[in-house]
Amino acid sequence: MAVYTETKTYHTKAHMGMIDITDDFRAAVHNACRNTGIKSGIITGFTTGGVAGLTTLEFEPGMVYHDLKAAMDVFSPYTDETGRVIHYHHHDTWHDDNGSSHIKAALLSPFIVIPFVDGEITIGPWQNLTLVECDTRNRTRDVVFQVMGE
Length: 150
Description:
single chain, 30% helix
């Protein structure tokens, strides 16, 4: 079994900023197939850092700019109705304001695994692979793409 790895860096926007990285998953699979001769297997995307996640969703404006953030804020709001940052015990440890970010990231996942067949990832037509920034500040994030197959 061959293993191929590449890393790409992204500049994310705070508070649930999302980037469609579907084409980068495709490119990593194509690069792996070209460089190693594999045809089928799996690709894993993994984002480093504790407050970002990877998911699949339909990458359209309502979902990207409102719906997912609103849903995650139900479970882990950043501010209360007066606009004050909500206290999380995490803040006591690090003296920061991103306790809600860690909960959002935990509800997502830092990785996603997709099978590929004959050099093509097997996602549906409305399924985009998406990097989600949960932190309270803009960040620079790496995603490690690891392709394994034969």
